[in-house]
Design brief:
By secondary structure, the protein is α+β, with helices and mostly antiparallel strands. The protein has 2 domains: 40 residues; 117 residues, 2-Layer Sandwich (Alpha-Beta Plaits). Strands 2-3-1-4 form a 4-stranded antiparallel sheet. The longest helix is centred in the N-terminal third of the chain and has 39 residues. It is rod-shaped and about 105 Å long. The relative contact order is 0.13.
Length: 179
C-alpha cells in the first residue's frame, strides 16, 4: 500500500540552524517592539487631543474675571493693599479678601454650591469674583458618584464670613459657613 502524492498533497519541511533560529527570534522581538512603540505614539496623540479639549474649557482666575480696564487701574500695588479689612468695612471691594489673621483666629469658609457640573461651578465662581469676592474658588473632590465641584470663599475669620453672608445670599440661596 503505497500512497501516491498528488499536486495538492505536498508536505514541506523547514530546517533552521541555531544561528538562523536566533536571528528569526530577534526579528520577531523587534517587530513586536516596533508595533508596541507605534501603539504608544498613537495613544500619545489621542491624549494630546484630549488635552487640547481641556485647554479650551474656561479657567476661572482673578485675571480672567476682572476686565482689562480695571486691570490697568490696579497696576500699582502698595503695602496698603495687603492690610486686613475691618468688619465694618465689608463691601464689594473688601469682601472675600483674606485678611491677616491674628494668633487666635482661624480661617472660615463659605460654601455656596456643591454640584457635579463643572461649568456651573466655574460660572458661579466667576460671578463671585466679579462681585468683589476675590478669594472665591472651585474645589474639586472625588466621591462615590464621581467628581464634585464646590464653590467656596475663604475668609480670615468666622465673624467676617457671617458679616458677608447677606451679600452672599444674592448669589446663592444656600450659604454654609464652615471652618
Amino acid at each position: 500500500m503505497e500512497e501516491v502524492l498528488t499536486d495538492d498533497q505536498s508536505h514541506y519541511e523547514i530546517s533552521l540552524t541555531a544561528g538562523q533560529a536566533f536571528v528569526a527570534f530577534v526579528l520577531l522581538l523587534l517587530s513586536l517592539a516596533a508595533s508596541f512603540a507605534f501603539g504608544l505614539l498613537i495613544g500619545r496623540g489621542q491624549a494630546d487631543d484630549r488635552l487640547v479639549m481641556r485647554k479650551d474649557s474656561p479657567v476661572i482666575s482673578e485675571t480672567a474675571a476682572v476686565p482689562a480696564k480695571k486691570m490697568a487701574k490696579q497696576a500699582e500695588v502698595t503695602n496698603d493693599d495687603f492690610k486686613a479689612p475691618t468688619i465694618e468695612s465689608v463691601g464689594p471691594t473688601s469682601v472675600g479678601r483674606p485678611a491677616e489673621a491674628g494668633p487666635h483666629t482661624e480661617p472660615a469658609y463659605a460654601q455656596l454650591l456643591s454640584t457635579s457640573d463643572q461649568k456651573t461651578a466655574e460660572a458661579l465662581a466667576a460671578k463671585l469674583i466679579e462681585g468683589g469676592f476675590t478669594a472665591s474658588y472651585v474645589e474639586r473632590t472625588a466621591s462615590g458618584k464621581g467628581m464634585v465641584f464646590r464653590v467656596r470663599i475663604k475668609f480670615a475669620s468666622d465673624a467676617e464670613a457671617h458679616a458677608a453672608e447677606a451679600k452672599l445670599k444674592e448669589y446663592s440661596k444656600d450659604v454654609w459657613i464652615t471652618k
